[in-house]
Each structure stands twice: as structure tokens, then as C-alpha cells.
Design goal:
Helix content: 10-25%
Largest sheet: 5 strands, antiparallel
Radius of gyration: 16 Å
CATH class: Alpha Beta
Length: about 180
């Protein structure tokens, strides 16, 4: 089932999400929600989505990239469910790159993110997972983690001069990464 995506201004996006109990993870209702969350991400051509974006204040996010039209140059990322994730930066270096958001439709902006992170979480089956992510994968995970903290990418932007409508992004910024 496709879920309704909260847009910027809805209070659901600004609340810190609650942890998910291990008991809830195995429930049929929660497993059904995970399927709906992934289906919603696919419907809106997202590369990630967090539960608060669909009005549920739980620490859950889904990530997947497989020939995504919104991010045609993005590397493939197999489907991943992150429950109660914790992140740790693996270096002090941050990379400035473009982001968009299903909850902030039609806009893109340049956002600083850690180049690489270590992630600890539970997966969809409730098993503990730990891995490292770099590049675009790390960016997506940090973006979704922010949603679980009640933040959106606009909160991280150092300079709003790069905030642009998608049409202008494609026309002026997309080719070289710099405005003419």
C-alpha cells in the first residue's frame, strides 16, 4: 500500500522518532508496514525513506538504489532496512553534494555530509547489523538518520544560495555541478 508522504511543515517531520522494540519487529503489522514503506519509496522514486516521512514516529528507514530516475548516476545499493540506527563518522572530512527529499518536493540543495560512516542497527528480521558506508551510500543513510532526529536536509545547508527548484537544478547545475 502506498503511504502518504508528509511534506515540510508537517509536525511529524520535526519530532525525534521513538525506538522500535525488538518484540515489535517480528509482528505481522510491523512487517507489513516495512513492505508499505519500501513500496512508497519506489512509488515516489526515492533512494531512501524514513518512517516519520509517512507520519509514523519510529526509528525505521529504508534505503535502495536500482536505476533511479531521480538519481540516474547513483551507484546501486541493495535494499536495506535500518531499525534504531546509530551512526559514527569515520573521518572528520565532510563532502558537499546535492540532495533532494520526498518531503521537500521539487527542490535540491548542496549539503555537507561525512564522507564515510559506520552504521549499527537492526535489520528487518531483527538481527543486529554493523557495516561501513561511503560516498553516496553514506549520504543517503545520513539523510534518513536526520529524519529520525526530526531534521531535514535544509537544516544542514551551510548556504541557501544553492537551494534550487528541480527544473533550475537540471538546467543550470546538473551538468558540471556549478552554476554558469
Amino acid at each position: 500500500m502506498i503511504l502518504k508522504v508528509a511534506r515540510l511543515g508537517h509536525p511529524a517531520l520535526r519530532r525525534k522518532a521513538s525506538p522500535v522494540s525488538r518484540k515489535l519487529i517480528s509482528s505481522a503489522g510491523f512487517q507489513s508496514f516495512l513492505k508499505d514503506l519500501v513500496e512508497t519509496m519506489h512509488e515516489y522514486d526515492g533512494v531512501g525513506i524514513a518512517a516519520p516521512q509517512v507520519h509514523l514516529s519510529l526509528q525505521v528507514a529504508a534505503v535502495e538504489v536500482n536505476r533511479n530516475p531521480r538519481y540516474p548516476k547513483a551507484p546501486r545499493i541493495p535494499r536495506l532496512i535500518l531499525i534504531n540506527p546509530r551512526l559514527k563518522a569515520l573521518s572528520r572530512e565532510k563532502v558537499l553534494d546535492w540532495e533532494g527529499c520526498l518531503s521537500v518536493p521539487g527542490l535540491r540543495g548542496r549539503v555537507p555530509r561525512w564522507r564515510s560512516v559506520e552504521v549499527q542497527a537492526y535489520n528487518a528480521q531483527g538481527r543486529a547489523v554493523r557495516f561501513r558506508a561511503g560516498g553516496f551510500f553514506a549520504r543517503v543513510i545520513q539523510h534518513e538518520w536526520d529524519h529520525l532526529q526530526g531534521r531535514v536536509y535544509l537544516d544542514r545547508m551551510r548556504d541557501l544560495k544553492t537551494l534550487t527548484h528541480l527544473e533550475e537544478y537540471v538546467r543550470y547545475w546538473n551538468v558540471s555541478g556549478h552554476a554558469p
